[in-house]
Amino acid sequence: MTRMITVGAAQMGPIAKDESRGQVVNRMIALLDRARRHGCDFVVYPELTLTTFFPRWFIEDETELDQWFEQEMPSNETQPLFQKAAEYGIGFTFGYAEIARDDNGAKHRYNTSILVEKDGRIVGKYRKVHLPGHAEHEPWRRFQHLEKRYFETGDLGFPVFRAFGGIMGMCICNDRRWPETYRVMGLQGVEMVTLGYNTPVENPPAPEHDAVGPFHNHLVMQSGAYQNATWVVGVAKCGNEEGVPMIGQSAIIAPSGEIVAQCHTLGDELAVADCDLDLCKSYKESVFNFAMHREPQHYGLIVERKGAVPPPEG
Ligand code: CDV
Q1: Catalytic positions, written as ranges
Q2: Crossing angle of the two packed helices 21-37 and 79-88, in degrees rounded to 10
Q3: How far apart are CA 228 and CA 27, in angstroms?
Q4: CB of 191 closer than 8 Å to CB of 245
Q5: What domains sit in the chain, N to C, each tagged with a CATH number?
Q6: Residue 145 CA, closest ligand 1 atom number
Q7: pLDDT at residue 1, as a whole number
Q8: Which residue's CA lies nearest to atom 10 of ligand 1?
């Protein structure tokens, strides 16, 4: 008896600045319809799915900034997606900009994703930990990347959730480049990590990386999958969004590290794979049997030290 989940990686093409959430949700539902025809149990949408990637602009006015954020979920605009998915019996995950209020009513902004079960219940939430970019306006850049200005570091860690008959985890975009992301979930027995990304082709601080960006995209997700014996589903928002080209290559990756399905366009597209969660088992019980082979007494620096400190010279 296998624990098979049929997964749809629901890549989205560019979202224009003036595109409404209602229009975006209609595109998401069109992908959900396709997923249903393919027999999907679970659909993965990108990071900040509901709007254009607004951190590319410097926004000083708080009311204007608030317009890119959601104060509740489901919201009026996303309710049709929740309804249609529950009607189809398909679970899903997507990312959005969240405004949360603490006990004192203070406002907190996060780059968030949620996990929704087949009956429409939100069963998991993750807030992005690794925020790339910068906090101040840097006019020398062709476009801004102000995640460090608009979002706080996620306060939930990397939780995993029992859902879809397995152990599910989430991360978001830049998180996928950090081995710690996968390992913290790997240590909780994760069997499928989902993530969305908005990755510009151009990396203004290091343009020499641009040519290898697509290679790095798959490199980190494939190694994260293999080294932690888990499925990884990485889904792009891509194409030319408001003059900024972003990479596609959404992929479903097996615990072997192999890509088993991949998008080939830069638009709305669904890549589908049958993902047997029990494929994780042989890796978790052999080469990556953590309990047997890890030596954490030698890994202290990973949590004690933030930046690299080379040994003294001479
Ligand atoms: N949205 C992102 O986190 N993007 C980053 C870019 C800025 C490098 C990424 O890691 O893909």
Answers
A1: 47, 128, 173
A2: 10
A3: 33
A4: no
A5: 4-304 (3.60.110.10)
A6: 7
A7: 59
A8: 174
